[in-house]
Amino acid sequence: NGIKVMLVVQKSDSSKIYPQAPIGTELTFDWSKKGFLTAIPESTVSIRLILGLEKVSGSVMFDNIAIRLISDYNVPPRDSTIPIPQYQPNGILRGAMISNNADSASVVRFGNEWKGNCIRWQLGGTSYTDALLRPDFETLLAQELSKLDRLLPIFRSSGISVVLDMHSLSQGLFKDTTAQKLLIDVWKRLATRYRNSEEIWAYDLANEPNEDSWHDEVMTLDSLYETMVKEIRKIDTGKVIILEPSWGVPSRLVNFVPVGARSGWNFKKIVYSVHCYDPFELTHQGIVGNYPPFGAVYPGKIAGTDWDFNRMRTALKPAVDFQKKYRVPIYIGEFSCVRWANQKSAIRWLTDAVSLFEEYGWDWTYHAYKEFHGWSVEFDDSLYSTIPPVTTDRKELLLSYFALNKPGYNTSAKNSLDASLTPNEVLITPNPFNPVVNIKLPLKEKVSRLHIIDIKGNKIADLTDKGRDNIFTWNAEKFSSGIYILSLVNKSGIRQQYKLTLIR
């Protein structure tokens, strides 16, 4: 395992963590500064520092060893009566990430046909490593901004809010002070450029910042964010600013200091974002060659842990706790499960994930639309499928939630149909753990009888209104996803029919 500069942190529950310096695979090198930044849990009982070689022969010398307390992240909670602010222009934002090479037709389709109301636009896509350290950074930035500017009128006409995401162009952030200074300067320029662009909803300052490469000559992530937000707010006070913890994972919020927390919470319109891909062995199986290996099934035991709806809730708990403690909004910037996950695991994982986002009232953008085919909901579940677009259960799931993208949508009523739906079509997305749904028909006149008919014309359910203003309760537990017909008779004897789409 090579050279070790590692802590063994013993916690009170007898578990251990092993934070360590990323030495790399170099075999021979001269004196070099190596270090790492880690958070010490409050439950820590003891810490040991390990220096040396592990499972390798050779020699190594250490000098000038230092351990320093950088900051105390234990910020007191805010008053629990403070309402969690909502900054969305028209209710919850539900959308997707999109390729930075997408064309206007794809954007129009996403907004007008799919009804997605938010796109997370990636500056740089996934193309560049350590972009902030490249001599051609300004050329790359100019190219990326031209792609965005070309589509801004299309976003506007399609009713799509844009999250401006500094994606791979934010790489290299903790390797050099010049990289941090450059990113601060770039966001000052972007705030000047887009402060009056109504279609841009938010600035996502750095995608999955890798604080593991921190060294003591650069700012920590929370200090860097504090500086960037302060500079942006001198220029643009209206845009939402989105901040991600290290790697963008929920667990890193445990040690994350919100901006302004130590100075009276003096910054407004700040949203905190995490990405949801747990467990990695499921969601990324086969992404890089055969790694992670194929075979993980959801729900089921994955990498030694039983994963199901409740375990997913546990994985998101740090974000829930962070929101409750500091009274701040949460946005799921990325989430996905590779389409070929075994035994249709992708649709089950996505159903549970989105159900939780909706339960918590979080904005979310799926990863991804018109990008890598492995994440696309327009390819089927086969690893070898190459011909899009096709209708998949994953696409229908997203569309069922996108259909709710209307002003005034109440997240507490996500299992009921909004009266503003198209009069001849009904969508139902039951919670897998509560299959009883309410069907609210957008009619002024009271309905006396309601039948549910399958595509062969067989009546499979006979429902009556219990005096609840055209709200019918249906237990859909035994029914599969598909198209059905709602046949109703009003009190005047007039018969009408609706298309019903049941999506699990």
Protein described:
The chain has 504 residues and is α/β, with parallel strands linked by helices. Helices cover 22% and strands 23% of the residues. It contains 8 helices and 20 strands. The strands form 5 sheets. The protein has an 8-stranded parallel barrel with strand order 4-5-6-7-8-9-12-13. A 5-stranded mixed sheet has the order 14-20-19-16-17, with no helix packed on it. Strands 2-1-3 form a 3-stranded antiparallel sheet, with no helix packed on it. β7, α4 and β8 form a beta-alpha-beta unit. α1 runs parallel beside α2 and α6 packs parallel to α7. The longest helix has 21 residues. The chain is globular.
List the topology elements:
Elements: E1 2-11, E2 16-17, E3 44-54, E4 94-98, H1 104-113, E5 118-123, H2 137-157, E6 161-166, H3 177-194, E7 200-204, H4 221-233, E8 240-243, E9 270-276, H5 280-283, E10 300-302, E11 305-307, H6 309-326, E12 330-335, H7 345-360, E13 363-369, H8 393-402, E14 425-428, E15 436-440, E16 447-453, E17 459-463, E18 471-475, E19 482-490, E20 495-502
Parallel strand pairs: 4-5, 4-13, 5-6, 6-7, 7-8, 8-9, 9-12, 12-13, 14-20
Antiparallel strand pairs: 1-2, 1-3, 10-11, 15-18, 16-17, 16-19, 19-20
Helix pairs in contact: 1-2, 3-4, 6-7
Mean pLDDT: 87
Low-confidence stretches: 407-423
Note the run of SSEs as H and E.
EEEEHEHEHEHEEHEEHEHEHEEEEEEE
Structural class: alpha/beta
Overall geometry comes to: globular
Strand order of the largest sheet: 4-5-6-7-8-9-12-13
The number of strands is: 20
Number of helices: 8
Keywords:
8 helices; single chain; 504 residues; 20 strands; 23% strand; 5-stranded mixed sheet; 8-stranded parallel beta barrel
